Amino acid sequence: MATEAGVNVQTLRYYERLGLLASPARRPSGYRDYRPETVRIVRFVKRAQQLGFTLEEIETLLDLAAGGPAGCDAAQVLASEKIAALDEKIATLVAMRDSLRQLLTTCERPRHRRECPLLSAIADDAVADAGAANGE
């Protein structure tokens, strides 16, 4: 089942513990006997993770995909929260892109005259993190 779903066995066990997968029946040999839809569910989970959903959010998505609940409240809340998170991520990525473009336009200059707000921000954050780690 793990091979067919494209994951390792530990991933299946983890999803079972989280309740994303129903606990499978056991064969007399002790091996788990997964239902045919398990592959589809595991692939759904992995694809949702690739799209940036957390396992907690995926649990809600699986519930919605299975037809419940009758109302749209949970879907609307999840969608609204994900839109806000995506908007924030997009803004951050656009700022990073613009910063790197600025570096490209100034990279021919002598090192002390190059401009890259992204590199400066990373360096400033590293200094602040080091100060916090040292109790400063």
Describe this structure in words.
By secondary structure, this protein is mainly alpha-helical. It is 65% helix and 3% strand. It has six helices and two strands, in the order H-H-E-E-H-H-H-H. The longest helix is centred in the middle third of the chain and has 34 residues, at 73-106. It is elongated and about 70 Å long.
Topology, element by element:
Elements: H1 2-5, H2 9-18, E1 25-26, E2 32-33, H3 38-50, H4 55-65, H5 73-106, H6 117-133
Antiparallel strand pairs: 1-2
Short description:
With 136 residues, the protein is mainly α. The protein is built from six helices and two strands, in the order ααββαααα. It starts with a helix and ends with a helix.
Supply the key terms:
single chain, 136 residues, mainly alpha, Multidrug-efflux Transporter Regulator, Chain: A, Domain 2, 2 domains, two-stranded antiparallel sheet
The computed structural class is mainly alpha
Distance between the termini: 52 Å
Kindly provide the name of the CATH class of the largest domain: Mainly Alpha
Strand tally is 2
CATH topology tier name of the largest domain:
Multidrug-efflux Transporter Regulator, Chain: A, Domain 2
